[in-house]
Design brief:
Oligomer: homodimer
Protein name (chains A, B): Acyl-coenzyme A oxidase
Keywords (chains A, B): FAD, Fatty acid metabolism, Flavoprotein, Lipid metabolism, Oxidoreductase, Peroxisome
Organism (chains A, B): Chilo suppressalis (Asiatic rice borer moth)
Largest interface: A-B, 131 and 131 residues
CATH architecture of the largest domain in chain A: Up-down Bundle
Mean pLDDT of chain A: 94
Family (chains A, B): Belongs to the acyl-CoA oxidase family.
Strand content of chain A: 5-15%
Low-confidence stretches of chain A: 92-99
CATH superfamily of the largest domain in chain A: Butyryl-CoA Dehydrogenase, subunit A, domain 3
Distance between the termini of chain A: 56 Å
Radius of gyration of chain A: 27 Å
CATH class of the largest domain in chain A: Mainly Alpha
Shape of chain A: globular
Subcellular location (chains A, B): Peroxisome
CATH topology of the largest domain in chain A: Butyryl-CoA Dehydrogenase, subunit A, domain 3
Chain lengths: ~675, ~675
């Protein structure tokens, strides 16, 4: 059932929808990339969700972690079965890609957290595709896609995450038996975190230090069977189990894995990029590095898009709730206003609508850039790779971090009710905040971008050409003349970034002049380098968001174009007012310009206000996917809060046994 | 067993402790307020914790919410029994106050979240003390203290939190039976959130609109019996139950309560401030308002102190982990450094050590201010009350908000392992972030402070005297001359606050000149008003922290005095570098001053580095209270992570039943 078929709709929401200045369906089509895409997406959503199989009688948050896991496995099996049946009819994988947003919408309807099978499709299958030889792929891929084997990806260890070269697990080749011997020499070398490893999978990709003929060749990937396919018993020589509860991903079944001289066939080394011959000879294939790199960038593109989706969910919940919720009485004898009327509430929420659009457009743009780089690489040109790496690193860091922060802001904007699990905001935050750490920690990634920035600065100093996204460094040697147009604000952000990079270079040189070597000077400058990389990323986001908005809205009605431009302008003004110190340092902006900037920002909030509900409706998120008492399309907020509460097992009996066992004896001093 | 008796200590932590420049015990005494207080605290901690009764065989996070609740009741009964036994020996309540930090340390050892009895001592008893007549108190208080009755406090409704005047629950006096009739006219009028209401309590304070003779007298407090004392069955005319899972407070048993013309005796109105006579005559006692106000300020003082405690816990965990964790290899052939060596890590963590001290000293100072105001009020002077209100409002808002944000920063600094529930950082955040909302929402409280700031600004304009904490408004009519000393930085923050208040007043007047009335102009200025109140609060925190540091460290050894001054200086420099835009707008600070500020900040991080472990050790938090695999005194991080994981019920059997039920059929296409 689509949201709109619900009969009883909150009167305030009805009014909001009546007053919306643009056609919501048109905007939905723009977001989806066209009417055809919207229709196709809805068709698939109907297929998976109209059956009601995604629904739990007892919501999963009332279960113990163990029961919750078992329920998640049950539903993963249902979901997998529908997906495989469907695959025989339509080739969704081709049309939408494995990690398509439509699958995410469906998965979120099935699980408040995630499926224990998440890494099977998310990492196991892509790694097979990316790192196996043709023969290996022919063996493993069909089995994995038909789910005859279920796998995960085990890289991180208890003692090492960021520093891959420091991994301790060893894979030593034994030419006598033509096997690799996997071993965990220490407790800290145990694999830790792999989703599904705890109790679910029977195979795993394992990253280990490869040794042949006494020589270490660094980390390589292997396919390892973990459990017996028939009995599911862990195989001899392995220690495997669940790592215990986490802040989020509570049904992801994250696990640990330790090896006691565990043997696997030579063929289980994934040999697309490096081979070990029967006699133990190590053969490196030339393109190694570049293509594994490709998978990493691909994952980051997807993450940025996922952040857009998570934020769209959070702000849909918060905006609808803010239209229903009424509170306080600023003027006597007038009714309590919708909290959406308060400027402070608009300030908390509307930036998240803008940011969801910004991330979605940036993800698409990054994808285009990425495919161009891939094409270059196929032609043997790897010049554009470092730029793409620097770009994807900082975008991953900033988009995951901003998304988490804005989801929390949406939650704060919902007051006490945002603290209820049934609002779905806490789970959304718990899930999203993990992305700040995995696939590259925030600080580490920004410092990688900073390395590139400093290098490019030195190129500019030497009068050399630099890559397109950093071409702005050549234009900003002095204070930028302030100009309040969108293009002017973007140029100001670029000049802030350039100014900060310049400051970092000065700091590095000062420390080196004091006698430090480059690496020590670098360490002492890292706080400023992180800030410079952040500034660079904000400049990129601003320019891409604005440019892409102008581009994608060109064919729209004037009403839709107007709101898309308002949202992009809001983004620029929001970050300008957030970064007054930077603007004062690196542009000629004056005190009266700042006052003017603040006024324009506040005016824009008020302009967007009447369309706020329409703007979040346009994300077209079904109630099943939102899973929120506060955010459903019909706005039955208080009714749903109570309905969900009444499902609590604690409410199924008038008196809990703990009264007789503990409270009564205490009251009566027995 | 105190932490220090553990035998096996991580080598890096041993080295850190050997290299600490000051006597940790001396600093602990300073934090506790003297050696006598430290000894007394430890004595009580030993009494409650040495028995091992706080310990769970199966950690509570592995249970279902229902089992977890029952386990929390079991342990609450144990804790209450020890407490009541102890009360007969020592008069802890007198010596430490009901909400004393020592009790918090003990409660945290018993519960990862909180006790379902939390609001009995935290709100039910204090409200009886604060709002009952002498006769009422004589009846209720002994019963409550002996736990013959167990109560909570029900004010917030589904539809109203912030706006108390909007509460919908009615209490209508019936002079025929001399009873009040409590009624919930709508779903949104159901009480919602009261801790312990779900299944635990048998009494509750209830706030309802009082009606006598057809006239409404606004919200008043009543004592209401909820459940039968013998059978624990909810009484007829009530609908009561659990509200379902929350982000934190998971064992707090928060509940809802609805009334269907439920009758209570006339005597159950809490009559210290207002009385209803038998014939229904309403008699207001003059001092009404002022004293209930007192309870509110008291709760805020306690909250600021609690934030200091929560942050001390988080940073103890993160600093110890950062001393044990080694990662990356900035220089080839050198060992991986402790992550505490990284400047970015120091930047993330040390501000939290400073802030824990800042909040503790500010809470104590606020308490002193508060008792002075109380003394004034007893003399009939209420002039100082508005200042205290403005002060406690913004301090509550900023301290809870900063504390939550810094706890998350501590968690981020622990990477993936910080995401484990066993680190205790997620629960600490979940608990703390609630304080941003309850007892006064962040934005609402800052706007209350802003009202006072604007009023005081107008007083200054008219040449009138203003209250001491706002006396600085008279000094900052123009840009402050920048001076990099501590006093200079504090003055700069004051000038920032003054400048922002001035800007708000200008904005208000501009809107009014455009034809708006005051309230509409106020609404349109609220984003800037919130920022002004925040700036005021940061100025207060900076001055109080610095002044109190100088005061309390005066009698210390030079080593302890040095580190306390370093921490306070770090606080000033941190916020100065965070607020460069404000400093550039409202002081004469130059670009080279800013560069210099950043350098001094980074130098200070490096100076504090060798003492970081000693500084968190000085908070003297027992492992039982920290409950963290990452933060224990002995630093056995990886061992504890694995030990906790192995307790998972999922790890008690090699194959989970869901394999046979769901996974195998899927693999075999059955």
């Amino acid at each position: 059932m689509s949201n709109k078929e619900t009969t009883e709709i909150n009167a305030d929401l009805l009014k909001e929808r009546r007053n919306c200045s643009f056609d919501v369906e048109e905007l939905t089509n723009v977001i989806d990339g066209g009417k055809v895409q919207t229709d196709k997406r809805r068709e698939i959503e109907n297929l998976f969700l109209n059956s009601g199989l995604s629904y739990d009688d007892v919501p999963e948050e009332y279960l113990s972690p163990k029961d919750r896991y078992e329920n998640a496995v049950r539903k993963s099996a249902i979901l997998s079965k529908i997906a495989m049946d469907m695959l025989e009819k339509v080739t969704v994988l081709e049309e939408f890609g494995i990690q398509s947003p439509v699958l995410r919408r469906i998965a979120d309807a099935f699980f408040r957290e995630v499926s224990p099978f998440l890494l099977h499709l998310g990492m196991f299958v892509p790694t097979i595709i990316g790192q196996c030889t043709v023969e290996q792929k022919a063996y493993w891929l069909p089995r994995a896609l038909r789910m005859e084997i279920i796998g995960t990806y085990a890289q991180t260890e208890l003692g090492h995450g960021t520093f891959i070269r420091g991994l301790e697990t060893t894979a030593t080749y034994d030419e006598n038996t033509e096997e690799f011997v996997l071993h965990s020499p220490t407790l800290s070398s145990y694999k830790w975190w792999a989703g599904g490893m705890g109790k679910t999978v029977n195979h795993s990709i394992v990253v280990a230090q490869l040794y042949t003929k006494g020589e270490c060749h660094g980390p390589h990937t292997f396919i390892v069977q973990i459990r017996d396919l028939d009995s599911h018993m862990p195989l001899k020589g392995l220690k495997v189990g669940d790592i215990g509860p986490r802040l989020g991903f509570q049904t992801a079944d994250n696990g640990f894995l330790g090896f006691d001289n565990y043997r696997i066939p030579r063929e289980n080394l994934m040999m697309k990029n490096a081979e070990v011959l029967k006699d133990g000879t190590y053969v490196k294939i030339a393109r190694h590095g570049k293509l594994t790199y490709g998978t990493m960038v691909f994952v980051r593109v997807m993450l940025v898009s996922e952040m857009a989706f998570n934020l769209a969910k959070a702000v849909t919940i918060a905006v609808r709730y803010s239209a229903v919720r009424r509170q306080s009485q600023p003027k006597p004898n007038e009714p309590e206003p919708q909290v959406l009327e308060y400027l402070t509430q608009q300030h908390k929420l509307f930036i998240s609508i803008s940011t969801a659009h910004a991330f979605q457009l940036t993800s698409a743009w990054l994808w285009t850039t990425f495919t161009a780089v891939l094409a270059d690489m196929r032609d043997g040109n790897t010049d554009t790779l470092p730029e793409l790496h620097a770009l994807s690193s900082c975008l991953k860091a900033i988009c995951t971090s901003d998304c988490s922060a804005f989801i929390e802001q949406c939650r704060f904007a919902c007051g006490g009710h945002g603290y209820m699990i049934s609002s779905n905001l806490p789970s959304l935050y718990g899930f999203t905040t993990a992305t700040r750490t995995y696939e590259g920690d925030y600080t580490v990634l920004l410092l990688q971008t900073a390395r590139f920035l400093v290098k490019m600065w030195e190129q500019v100093e030497q009068g050399n050409a630099v890559t397109p996204t950093l071409e702005y460094l050549t234009r900003h040697q002095n204070k930028e003349i302030w100009d309040e147009s969108p293009e002017g604000i973007i140029r100001a952000f670029e000049s802030v970034s350039a100014g900060k990079v310049k400051g970092c270079v000065a700091s590095l040189r000062k420390h080196m002049k004091d006698g430090l070597d480059y690496e020590d000077a670098w360490q002492l400058t890292t706080v400023q380098l992180v800030a410079a990389a952040e500034a660079h990323c904000r400049a990129i986001l601003s320019r891409v968001y604005w440019t892409e908005t102008v581009r994608v809205s060109a064919g729209s009605s004037s009403e839709v174009r107007a709101v898309l431009h308002q949202l992009a302008a809001l983004y620029l003004l929001y970050w300008a007012t957030e970064r007054t110190g930077d603007l004062l340092r690196f542009t000629t902006i004056s005190e009266s310009d700042l006052v003017n900037l603040q006024e324009r920002y506040e005016e824009l909030l008020r302009k967007i206000r009447p369309n706020a509900v329409g703007l979040v409706d346009a994300f077209d998120l079904r109630d099943e996917t939102l899973r929120s008492t506060l955010g459903s399309y019909d706005g039955r907020v208080y009714e749903r809060l109570m309905e969900e509460a009444l499902k609590s097992p604690l409410n199924q009996e008038p008196v809990n046994q703990s009264f007789h066992k503990y409270i009564k004896p205490l009251m009566n001093k027995l």
